[in-house]
Amino acid sequence: MPKIVLNFSNKLILWYLQNKRELPWRNTTNPYNIWLSEIMLQQTRVLQGLPYYLKFVEAYPKIEDLANAPDDEVLKLWQGLGYYSRARNLHATAKMVAEEMNGIFPNNYKDLLKLKGVGDYTASAIASISFNKPEAVVDGNVYRVLSRFFGISTPINTSSGQKEFKQLAQELIDKDQPGAFNQAIMEFGARFCMPQKPDCPTCIFNDSCVAFQQKKVAMLPVKIKAKPVKVRFFNYLVFLSENERTVLKQRNGKGIWHKLYEFPLIETSEEINLSTLQKHQQFKDFTDEINIENISLYSEKPVIHKLSHQHLNTHFWIIETSRLGKHAEATENTIPVSEVKNYAVPVLIGNFVSDFFENY
Question: Which residues are part of the catalytic machinery?
């Protein structure tokens, strides 16, 4: 084994053992707990994901408990964590492991990859931490540490870059302590080799880090510019009847928020006023046979909700009516206003519900 590889691994693991955060999933090698934590921490900070992990473990101590839970219950418990496809995949995998594998997780990288929502990173994490297999993880933290330490400028969001970094991480991994190594390099990237203003002068690697020696820390890792953000315009119709009922619909089409609930939605190509809204065919369909008494905006300024590649400019139109009409779109999903908070909704709508219905 090359000396630089041995020194890197030994230094890194020693730093980790002395500085690691005490986190609940680090007190076990149970693949259920490791899988649950890794799915939740995809594109999510530890501080944000920790409360959700604790809630799920309390509600579903075993994978069979999660498998037997209703879809809406799982989505409601996940609400606020974002990237809801993770929750749907989580539930699907729980059912698969519980029903087809007798509740026993696969113990190797290849078979772990067959689970829904489990990619290279998650399969490597479970295989190394739960089963002590030398499978290297590569995530944003790992890209950053390796690109800086070795001075690698290959873009990390290209197939060639991903292959190069995966191969390097695999060469570096401590084959006797693969779980410790993987957790160490992720922890080091998250807490020390940070994206902005890392404390390089006190870094354990500053005597051999290429980026530090060549003053290229801020330039690495290299990432090809992402596609431009798509701007969308949402108009939610919040019906309020005299008998305190409203309308919620479940999103069943492809795209964001699949299976979550929302108010009737009209998407437009630009921001619109009340007059334009009332002329829209979808508005006419939604309000057919409804006696509208008043329409008002929740806020004159649109609520801007930012997703990874989309910005949603959103208006909530409050529509007061004596009764909700017979039109299927407006009746089959009517619920008491008091029950809105019980449904799994996107954060955008959850924030509105908390503000608007708090004192309703």
Answer: 38
Rounded CA-CA distance 78/55 in Å is: 9
CATH class of 3-219: mainly alpha
Q: What dihedral do alpha carbons 45, 35, 52, 178 form, nearest 10°?
A: -40
Question: 324 with 241: CB under 8 angstroms?
Answer: yes
Annotated domain spans of the chain: 3-219, 230-356
E-state strands within 227-309 = 230-241, 245-247, 249-250, 261-262, 265-268, 292-297, 303-306
The overall pTM is greater than 0.70:
yes
What is the C-alpha to C-alpha distance for residues 30 and 310, in angstroms, rounded to an integer? 37
pLDDT digits (tens, 9 = 90+) for 304-331: 999 988 999 999 999 999 877 654 344 5
Q: Which CATH class, in words, describes the domain spanning 230-356?
A: alpha beta
* Phi, then psi, of 12 in degrees rounded to 5: -65, -45
The number of C-alpha atoms within 13 Å of 284 and in the hemisphere containing its C-beta is 5
User: How far is residue 23 from each of residues 20, 170, 259, 289, measured CA to CA in Å?
Assistant: 9, 25, 31, 56
Residue 154 is predicted with a pLDDT of 97
